[in-house]
Amino acid sequence: MSLISPAPATHDADQPRERWFVQRPKVYAADVRGRFRQLKWLALAILLGVYYVTPWLRWDRGPGIPDQAVLVDMVGRRAYFFWIEIWPQEVYYLTGLLIIGAFGIFFATTLLGRIWCGYACPQTVWSDLFMWVERKLEGPRTERIRLDKAPLSARKLGLKASKHAIWLAISLVTGGAWIFYFNDAPTLLREIATGEVSWKVLAFAGLFTATTYFFAGWAREQICIYVCPWRSFQAAMVDEDTYVVTYQDWRGEGRAPLRKSQSWDERTAEGLGDCIDCKLCVHVCPTGTDIRKGQQISCIGCGLCVDACNDVMAQVGRPGDLILFDTRSNQVARADGQAAPVRLLRPRTVIYALIILVVAGAMAVSLALRPTLDVSVLRDRAPLYVQQSNGDVQNAYTIKILNKTHEARTYRLSVEGLANADLSVASVDAQSGNSLTLNAEADSVATYRIFVRVPQGAATPGSTDVTVLARDVTSGEIGRHRSVFMAP
């Protein structure tokens, strides 16, 4: 056996090394005009308007109650949405909203592909706004490419600094608008202006400012392609009857540039199609997707390539919609000279719609019928019971009365299912009897420690099911909570 180790392997300097990661080319999205571009501008204006304006809307709820129409009051532990007031105990409404939102996206995706990603996703909306600023300052696509390749100069430095300054300003306004949803907007703005704002508020504003600047300014399509989980979910929901951005390869192939002296009859004789390989559909795509290669997970379904291609087809005298929103089944039929029927009602669309309607209906009924009174009871477990010197058995309970009205209320507390029960309150001015009079301030939770005592011989050994009742003296509304009474 040789004691000499084999020589380590060496790399030939001229031999290319294997690359583990390939840098993605930067996307320089070109500007385009058309109906889908106008639709995106409209969606951007509406969504940004709603986002920035909503915290400033007022809604009168009475004295002592926040008058901001949409507010998540973390200090007061309330969420306000116009006339709806949500308490922490009603977090299931948030669950319902998440279910409706998720299945709403499922439903829209099944019908129109990644319409959410292309028009309503915050990443798309703010990235579109940032790219508009970039185009206004640095010019069209070709000028931006030349500017990035050019050496550093005073002009380049000025354009880049101006662009990033505007991006940061938009990000700051975005982060500031978000924290207005969790604080009274006019009050918080005054605190910011006077320097009295807390460091927590500034920290959250800085966090949202930084994420907006990074996601919309730097990451852009990387978020849509590599980070966002919806891309995978939505890709699995598309079927042959979903309207998606489609390239009609049966009409466009084979593709080749159009020569000046070449007629369309000559191109047809040569086996060429309508696509002149101008690549404008790729240049206008915000994710750099070549839709001519078929459906890809990077396509966000915005339809800008449709506008670009239709413009080119009009210039060369060919029919439009070489790229269009269409279904796979219709494309197969068109290739054979036929037309497939539109199938909007399909099992999955019907199921998604029913789930949305059922959840929304259940939430609406629950909101309409929800009580203004809630009672919770927690029985002491140590000790399970106390047997007094005269033989009476006593249990202790912590009772919380939730008054959801905006007025102070008085309640009569009693216990059902326990004969000869005597109730008392653990306080200085204790009262006792078969019922108690308890008060709860407006829009608050009143907590009381209650003793329930049963005479010797009247208590059933072991556990006895009881119901604690709280009756609103004014409205007559009753709140119930089941518990048990323990006896030896």
TrEMBL record:
Pfam families hit by this protein: Fer4_18, Fer4_5, FixG_C
Transmembrane feature ranges: 41-59, 91-112, 165-182, 197-216, 350-369
InterPro entries: 4Fe4S_Fe-S-bd, 4Fe4S_Fe_S_CS, Cyt_c_oxidase_cbb3_FixG, Electron_Trans/Redox, FixG_C, Ig-like_fold
Entry keyword Iron-sulfur: yes
Name by which UniProt lists this protein: Cytochrome c oxidase accessory protein CcoG
Record keywords: 4Fe-4S, Electron transport, Iron, Iron-sulfur, Membrane, Metal-binding, Transmembrane, Transmembrane helix, Transport
Domain 4Fe-4S ferredoxin-type: 266-295
